[in-house]
Amino acid sequence: MADTQTLDTAAVAAYLSEHLPGFEGPIEAVKFDIGQSNPTFLLKTPGQNYVLRRKPPGVLLKSAHAVDREFRVQSALAGSKVPVAKMYLLCEDDAVIGSSFYVMEHVDGRNLRLPSLDELEKADRGKVIDEMNRVLAELHMVDIDAVGLSDYGPPGNYFERQVGRWSKQYRASETVTVEAMDRLMAELVERMPPDDGQRTLVHGDYRIDNMIFAKQGTNCLAVLDWELSTIGHPYADLASVIMQWQMPLGPEGRGLAGIDRVAQGLPSDEEFIAAYCARRGLAGIDNFGFYLAFCFFRMAGIIQGVLKRALDGNASNPERAMKVGAYVPIFAEHGLEALRR
């Protein structure tokens, strides 16, 4: 069985001593319990802390777990209005620890895992969500030519490309027949909107738990987990936020379904979308149901891959992977509902 829970700290220390200026061991590695795709470790040293993010060992789906792309996009965004951790080095030599990895700054802040933001004062919850909105709009206004990312994704209809890609990924990791997923994939193809020409950097998994906020205050210090980033259509990121909020409350669903958002100090879906459009100078968004359905479809494909890795024995967090995998049919059904609305 492939091991995603431990790290060869001696090999890492030897490599960093040779390739990272100012590094001094010894290393203590502590695995983060969040993140299902690329195992991530806090590296503690006497001088400072780092974060190492690696591809999981074992046989992987083609194009998945692209730590080299994560390293590239965060390096390109350094100094932009999109906060990211500082990138130190990328190692693509599998011989070092068994798979490629990169090392980045450890951003000392707080990770707010659930969008209900129960741990915050009511007055701060709306401010955090507005900061999330601001960063998303800034992400979609990055000049991809100026930061060297114009070739970071292929040209053409982003949604057409993504539906094709994730349908193939889903079939490659399919374990049982999910009728709703089969219908959703077919209907997305049938209802594909024409390309409107928007081409921006997109994160691909933009959620509150993929962000680090200041320990005091509500400003974002870093956006994490760029594995699904590419050049694509900005509405996919916006719809992914709304998609997440429609899921059940709690650590599995990580949504806001059924919550009294006014009492909680949180914006409605419509208010969040309006704030985003205002920041980008947009009059509004037509056909939002398609973009929402697409996000449910893609997330179903992602968590099906998580489930398959758990069954194959190389999931980053096996117990959580099995729980998450049970949501594949639920995401598919939600996608169909969004499409038909």
From TrEMBL:
Q: Where is the Aminoglycoside phosphotransferase domain?
A: 31-253
> What's the superkingdom here?
Bacteria
The record, for InterPro entries, names: ACAD10-like, ACAD10_11_N, Aminoglycoside_PTrfase, Kinase-like_dom_sf
Q: Which PANTHER family match?
A: AMINOGLYCOSIDE PHOSPHOTRANSFERASE DOMAIN-CONTAINING PROTEIN (PTHR47829:SF3), HYDROLASE, PUTATIVE (AFU_ORTHOLOGUE AFUA_1G12880)-RELATED (PTHR47829)
Q: By what name is this protein known?
A: Aminoglycoside phosphotransferase
